[in-house]
Amino acid sequence: MLIADDIDKLLDILPDFIKNALDVHPKKRFLIEIVMDLGRRPEARFPEGPVYLSTINISWIHLDFCIKKIPQFSNDNRSGIQYTLHRISSIKNRKGNIIGLTLRVGRAIFGTINVVRDLLYAGDSILLLGKPGVGKTTAIREITRILADEMEKRVVIIDTSNEIAGDGDIPHPAIGRARRMQVATPELQHKVMIEAVENHMPEVIIIDEIGTELEALAARTIAERGVQLVGTAHGNYLHSVIKNPTLCDLLGGIQYVTLGDDEAKRRGSQKSILERKSLPAFQVAIEIHERSSWVIHEKVDQTVDKILQGSNVSLQRRCFHADKSISIECDNSSFNEFIMYSNSFSSSSASVNQSNLAIIKNYSQFNQSNLPTKTKILNVSKFTNLINKSSSYVLPKLYIYGMNIRQVEQIISDLNLSIVLTRDLLKADYILGIRSYIKHNAKMRQIANLRHIVIYTIHSHNRNNIIRALNQILNT
């Protein structure tokens, strides 16, 4: 990969004792950012962690030295260096005086998106997800160049903080032939997005850091006009964006739907469920967990539907290696945060929802007090067995809590069930207990959450409830 970072231009605005320390640092080319806080030692941050650059504490003189060499800060406390991709952010006190600087190194890395080049040629809108600093902006900058130069499309960048195309009126060469529209303040980004479509006839719109409801609405409007979108948003995983009320519209949004009795029976679900409201603005989503490992969702609409249903989701992981080779791995994952609870049917109902069984995963995130007083059921869905099994069949290990273990042992023996009871919680694959006891044992719920142990609860320990619970365990 070819890397252009103009790092010397960033170092030139620093005091000599910081600049000299970085000039001789062996990992200078991997520098992420420099932090200068009043009264503290200067700090350089690398992928492996932070490093102090000097024993001298930062003073007002050092901050003033840097501030005089950079352009004026905008309303979002950001600035840059002319003709570079570096970003400089300030921290101010209550009086408006700058007491800290974060100088982030901006790089143009050519070849970084070879792992998803095929997705660009498909012409679908692409959403990049990941935590700050993982490389979303670097990737979107390279995507811009590919679309504008290699594919010869009309590309317009909505550059709110001048981070994609650099500071100054002349955009950085890293974006190729793409045009850049600057945004005066972050609050106006959604208006500039619409203006770009109406005035400049783009085939592709590039948006960095979609973060407000108005920007999400503008993205949907652009998608409905047939313009390809490439954007980024903060969120480590696709399901975290679905849970974000501000950004979920990018994926089609979610709504409560009440089913009729017959339809609920046919689906094997509760009457109240969550469903996707409309088509997503983005057809492809990319989760960037590490710089060299990306998870691809090529059909966002189908993936969102499966997540809302608690079904298995096929994950495609693409990794690129130091020898420029690319590997693709497939995996399955399951989500049940979105499965809803509802009131149980009457005893005359033939529905399977008569069961008092409750299946709870990630129990520490479940607030029992939110349940209506008459609620007896948490919607039962098929969970994927998250325990890795060897090629030979491994009997599931069950931990009993708040119940007579002899009674459960006798039922397993009578029905000849393939379940092993264990008295060691840490060795268990499943937990079966009385709901009221599980509810008040926070430590057990925490352990289960950390070790991915699925908790099954029943209202009372009569024989029928226990049998239903054991059968459910074997059917997962």
TrEMBL record:
Q: Which GO terms describe its molecular function?
A: ATP binding
Every AAA+ ATPase domain range: 122-278
Instruction: Tell me if Cell membrane is a UniProt keyword of this record.
Output: no
Alphabetized InterPro entries for the sequence: AAA+_ATPase, P-loop_NTPase, PTPase_dom, Spore_III_AA_AAA+_ATPase
Question: Which CDD domains has this protein been placed in?
Answer: AAA (cd00009)
Keywords attached to this Swiss-Prot or TrEMBL record, sorted alphabetically, are: ATP-binding, Chloroplast, Nucleotide-binding, Plastid
Q: Could you tell me what this protein is called?
A: AAA+ ATPase domain-containing protein
Query: Its encoding gene is what?
Result: ycf45
